[in-house]
Each structure stands twice: as C-alpha cells, then as structure tokens.
UniProtKB/TrEMBL annotation:
CDD domains: PBP2_LTTR_substrate
Species the sequence originates in: Achromobacter denitrificans
Official protein name in the record: LysR family transcriptional regulator
Pfam family, one: HTH_1
Keywords recorded for this protein, A-Z: DNA-binding, Transcription, Transcription regulation
C-alpha cells in the first residue's frame, strides 16, 4: 500500500484556485451572465471578471468566451463543468451535513434506488444499520436510472442500486464509478394464451413494441463515485 503521488502542478492549483471560481464555471454552464453571477455572489461585476481572468492565468488556457451579449464556456471550459458542479454541490452538501453533525455525530447515508429495488434489497441492510446505530440516518431516494445517475454524479447520493443509465457513459464518467454487478434482471412479456404469435424468432427491436416471449436481460448493479485521485 502506498500513497498516490501528487500530480505535477497540483500545488499551484491548490494555492491559487478559489472555490468561487468553480461557481463561475457552474453558473456560466447554466446560462448565467457575469452580471447575474455578480448579483448571486454579492460581488461587483469587475470583481467577477478579475476572478475569471485569474483562473484562466492559473490554468494556462481560456475558460470563458466573452460576447457582446454575454459569456459562454470555451471547449476547455466545458471540460471543467463536471468537476465544477461536483465541487460546488459537495460543498453545499457539506454545509448541510455540518449542521446535522452539530446535532448528532452520525452522518446521513443517502442511497438511490427504484421503488421495488429499494424495498427488496435495502430493507434488511437499513434495518441492520438502524439496529446497530440507533442514531443513524438513512435516506433512500426513489427515481429512474437516469435521474439517480445524475444525482450520483452531482454528489447528491452516496451510492445507487439499480441499472445503469440508458445513454452511453463518457470515458470521464466511467472513470469516476465503482460498479459491482449484483444480479441479472429479466424482463418478460406476458400476453393472453389465445393471442396469435408470429412464427420464427423475433428481432430484438420487436420486443420494444410487441408482447411476446422475448426476455432481454439487464444487469442491475450498485454504483458509487470513486474517490478522486
């Protein structure tokens, strides 16, 4: 076992980057102008512009593209959006958790799962946690796979039990996940016995439109964000 070697230049970033600069990236990605961000952050617009320039100087690349009618992110700035949102959301959650920790030393565990999965897989573990840690606080958030995955990536959940999102994951998203397959899930289509079936095998896309005996398998898994390196 060994400690990870800090990346080259990490000391410079830690010493010079400020948390409010990540809030700038998050705000611009949501369509806000520097003027609107200045109002939200209780700063002057010149202070916001200076903060943006200092961030670009530190990173050595243009993050913001200034226009006559506003501001947008460059391609490099877009690549920072996920990290910026994660940092800002983590801090917002930390603020909430600190208030909880002042009242109780037990941290809230937030899990995401569809309703059926939450009842069938999480009821026993939650009962065991409650029995062993009487002050423990567990929250189970119900939702579909795409919503739960987005909440996980935003730092709003500790882990998710359910299927992966329907869209393809980017390499950046996949690198942040620790995934463990729990069990294969079968989807069966049931119809009345008198219903006529077409002869021969069906193409898989027909299963999305017509009930039949096709049983596509979907792996269900537990996923959580891996700690940053």
């Amino acid at each position: 076992m060994a400690l990870a070697t800090p990346a080259a230049g990490s000391g410079k970033l830690l010493n010079r980057l400020r948390l409010k600069q990540f809030e700038l990236i998050k705000g611009v990605s949501e369509g806000l102008s520097f003027r609107q961000l200045a109002d939200r952050m209780a700063l002057s617009q010149p202070a916001i512009s200076k903060m943006a320039r200092e961030m670009e100087d530190t990173l050595g690349a243009a993050v913001f593209e200034r226009h006559r009618d506003g501001v947008s992110l460059t391609a490099f700035g877009q690549s920072l959006v996920h990290d910026a949102r994660l940092i800002v959301n983590k801090l917002a959650r930390l603020e909430s958790e600190l208030a909880e920790l002042r009242r109780s030393p037990i941290r809230t565990l937030r899990a995401g799962a569809p309703s059926y999965t939450g009842m069938s897989l999480l009821s026993r573990p939650v009962a065991l946690i409650a029995a062993r840690h009487q002050q423990a606080h567990v929250e189970i958030i119900d939702g579909i796979a795409n919503r739960l995955f987005d909440m996980l990536m935003a730092g709003e959940l500790d882990f998710v039990i359910g299927s992966l999102p329907s869209r393809n994951l980017s390499d950046e998203e996949a690198a942040l996940l620790h995934v463990e397959v729990l069990y294969p899930d079968e989807v069966r289509f049931i119809a009345h016995r008198d219903m006529a079936w077409p002869a021969g095998p069906w193409p898989s896309k027909s299963c999305c439109r017509t009930p039949g005996s096709c049983r596509p398998k979907t792996p269900w898994c537990a996923a959580r964000c891996a700690p940053p390196c």
